[in-house]
Amino acid sequence: MILSAENMSRSYGDRVLFENISFNIEEGDKIGVIGVNGTGKSTLLKMIAAGESGGGKLTIPGGVVLEYLPQDPPFEAEATVLEQVFKDDSPLMVLLRRYETAVEAVAAEPENDRLQKQLLELQQEMDNKYAWQLESEAKAVLTQLGITDLQQKMGELSGGQRKRVALAGVLVRPSDLLILDEPTNHMDNATVAWLEQQLLKRKGALLMVTHDRYFFDRVVNRTLEIDNSKGYLYTGDYSLFLQKREERRIAEASAAQKLRNIYRRELAWISRGAEARRTKKKDRVERFVQIEAEVKNVQTEASLEMSSVASRLGKTVIELDKVSMVYNGIDYIRDFSYILLRNDRVGIVGPNGAGKSTLMDIIAGRLAPTGGSITVGQTVKIGYFSQHSEFPDSSQKVLEYIKEANNYIETADGSRISAAQMLERFLFPPELQWVPVNKLSGGEKRRLYLLRVLMTAPNVLLLDEPTNDLDIPTLSVLEDYLDSFAGAVIAVSHDRYFLDRFANKIFALQPGGTLRQFVGGYSDYENTLTQEAAQLVAEEKPKEAAVKETAPKNTKKKMTYSERLELENIDQEIARTEAELKMLGMEINSCGSDFVRLGELTKEQEAAQQKLDALVDRWAYLSELAEEEEC
Hints:
Blueprint: E1 3-12, E2 15-25, E3 30-34, H1 41-50, E4 57-59, E5 66-69, H2 81-85, H3 91-108, H4 113-128, H5 131-144, H6 159-172, E6 177-181, H7 189-201, E7 205-209, H8 213-219, E8 222-227, E9 230-235, H9 238-270, H10 274-278, H11 282-297, E10 318-327, E11 330-340, E12 345-349, H12 356-364, E13 371-376, E14 382-385, H13 398-405, E15 408-410, E16 416-418, H14 419-425, H15 430-433, H16 442-455, E17 460-464, H17 472-484, E18 488-492, H18 496-502, E19 505-509, E20 515-519, H19 522-550, H20 561-590, H21 595-630
Parallel strand pairs: 3-7, 3-8, 5-6, 6-7, 12-18, 12-19, 14-17, 17-18
Antiparallel strand pairs: 1-2, 1-4, 8-9, 10-11, 10-13, 15-16, 19-20
Helix pairs in contact: 3-4, 5-6, 9-11, 13-16, 20-21
């Protein structure tokens, strides 16, 4: 057993997040935690990572190692990327620091045998603990996550980059239980696919919160749902969870209806005249009081609803003509032309830093392009859901924040829904509507910001990474809303499920700033790329076959004098290169945590290895020539 949780609970004042949640984690479990934002998913993960039980009992056997990735990981501003990965309190970092100190001591007293012996022992301990291997693995993982400058200070990185450095750390450092809170936020699609494979290959247990449904479906094998402050554990992936949850809710609704029917009968009985009441049995009266309390405690399922209301949209929507954006000599957007149609559903994909958000800012009119022009129709009313929620006054009350956008919205049938009513539909009950915005969870803030955007009744929606921090129930309702939205939608997203669900066109941002257009959702886009790659391979095969056919058969090539001379000397060159590689390896092992020098030596080692490989290949070729001549 990795972990046992019994009756874990957490409340803030009168607000109950969850109570009496119990579950076990065994080796090989990959558990996904799901629930509406504000139900305490992140709080539960944080409590487990800190060993807190919330009045219950949390059992973690001795020797079990936990690694935790919070939504906003702490960092040392002056630490380098590599130093942050091997954080100060990790056993490996302690060992590396001891080794560095020993190297400095030997350098100061090279004749001291005792210090030399200590250094040798530490070096052997480093080898035994695979320290060099872990360091090499860390570099590979960081590169895969888009972090290439390992000596850059953490304070110089963006929030998304710092999150990826923290993710690299928990992936590399050995652990029995990996706890991840929204690991795919701020990742591009290719990196999310890579992380999927890493977690699937990983042998240890996993406890994770994620709103990426494809990622959830492919990685987890058990699902923990927090619903109405209670925990429900299901065996299976996301698809099976949806089925089992529906069965549970149907059973609960049936049981609740039976209880209400009993209550009505008992209420009619207890409500008879005063004379009859005096003759009632005491135990039945007590039973009625108990049933009444149970009926009042039955909670109906809260649901989100959005009315698809948009302002009238004229003939011209948004037209982009050869739009470009050049910054510091880099083409982020180059000669992009497109006429947005009234009912377009466009998804934009591309690697991080490629310029997707820049394009959205240009379309929204927040950023002027360096080239080209944009024409926006007179009737266009843009609603821009940006990556960063906009709260100018975080002390403002929730209801006041929404009323600033609109006091009410009109539905398709002409009725009006007030701001307070819309907040209730968005799972902000009356008591929460008078809470300051800064008291909300990160996910609740994103849901509130989304409601504000929609309350303005836009007819063109720009969504920049809408799936970041939005819970799955809210995403499902947003997708239903977009189905009937009478306007155009453009969304930047790394969520493959969301793109498949809403988009009918995919624009892929290519190197050099060009946008390539594909018809269909994300899966169609992926299939097209796969087919093109297969076709390219198929086209290359006939060319290779043709080259082989045209090559003269049974012809022996005679060695030149220079080739004979090269063959005589190549063994010595191979031996010198092998010796050079061995010396570089020894120097790498002795340079401690001097990561600058380590990086230089690693490059030299790679170059020497490439040279050795080339020499061996050349030796094999020359040896074959010599053998053919002798035949």
